[in-house]
């Protein structure tokens, strides 16, 4: 799901201003035919149409772009629960839908009123009343529109994760996770010699036995459960909700700045709910003795690819 394409949400005032501006432009139309009554009716109902169309189109765009929670995977459902007020979100979408229906219904009844009226002043008065009632409806949802704009900005930080066999590369900052992603998938995500280079989830793809595999390189985690920021939270959700398989990256050289003891602790924290394969980064700069004494089973890049092919 791509959350980057939700268009900005305007305030009630902006929606109304644009609807009334368009109606005024339409009202200047000169080439209407018929007697004065037909012309004025036609002119006023055209303005009612334009106001209604403009407002309902804006509201429908909002409803079309924001996803319904039930249509999303459990990863996004949980992410939403953790980053926005879900019930206010749903209430806001409900309010937008309510306003859309109200404006439509009111349009129908005011157009027929216009068509039943024979006095110029009364026809004008009907239009004015319509504008007033429509404004009041749209103003009523102003807080909802504001909240949806806040949600939109939060959703822009959501990663685009596809539903397919997924591998999560996990480990401390600076151990070599992104380097492994690039080597596995041929992607060119940023690698650098300092911690927290990766600030959002990097995705790479490759095909194994004709099956497409998604590899997610999550920002280096310190796994402090008590104070996870938005992106660490996403990393934890990728690991627990999305991944079919985890590759835990160890840096035995400790050049990353994290001791073996700490790396072991984090490794044990992951548990064994899903398969975890160990990859040793920076073998070329690691002491041979350290390599020999490393107790856990681990895999080379080539072996990892074979394991993945057998599981996916
Ligand atoms: N010599 C050597 N250096 C490596 C190897 N793998 C990674 N590095 C270096 O280690 C540093 C960190 O690598 P990254 O792939 O950016 O590490 P990361 O785990 O993604 O780091 P964060 O995104 O900050 O969490 C970079 O300077 C890499 O060039 C390796 O196998 N050998
Ligand atoms: Mg990285």
Describe the structure.
The chain folds into two domains: about 10-155, Four Helix Bundle (Hemerythrin (Met), subunit A); about 165-310, P-loop containing nucleotide triphosphate hydrolases (Rossmann fold). Helices cover about 55% and strands about 10% of the residues. The protein is rod-shaped. A five-stranded mixed beta sheet has the order 2-3-1-4-5, sandwiched between helices. It contains eleven helices and five strands. The mean pLDDT is about 90. Bound molecules: guanosine-5'-triphosphate and magnesium ion. Guanosine-5'-triphosphate binds near residues 193 and 198. The site of magnesium ion has 5 residues, from helix 7.
Distance between the termini: 22 Å
CATH topology of the largest domain: Rossmann fold
How would the global form be characterised?
rod-shaped
Ligand catalogue: guanosine-5'-triphosphate, magnesium ion
The secondary-structure class comes to alpha/beta
Quick one: CATH class of the largest domain? Alpha Beta
Secondary-structure element order, N to C: HHHHHHEHEEHEHEHH
Query: What portion of residues belong to β-strands?
Result: 5-15%
Largest sheet: number of strands, sense, barrel closure: 5 strands, mixed
Which properties best describe this structure?
rod-shaped, 312 residues, alpha/beta, binds magnesium ion, 5-stranded mixed sheet, Four Helix Bundle (Hemerythrin (Met), subunit A), binds guanosine-5'-triphosphate, 2 domains, Rossmann fold
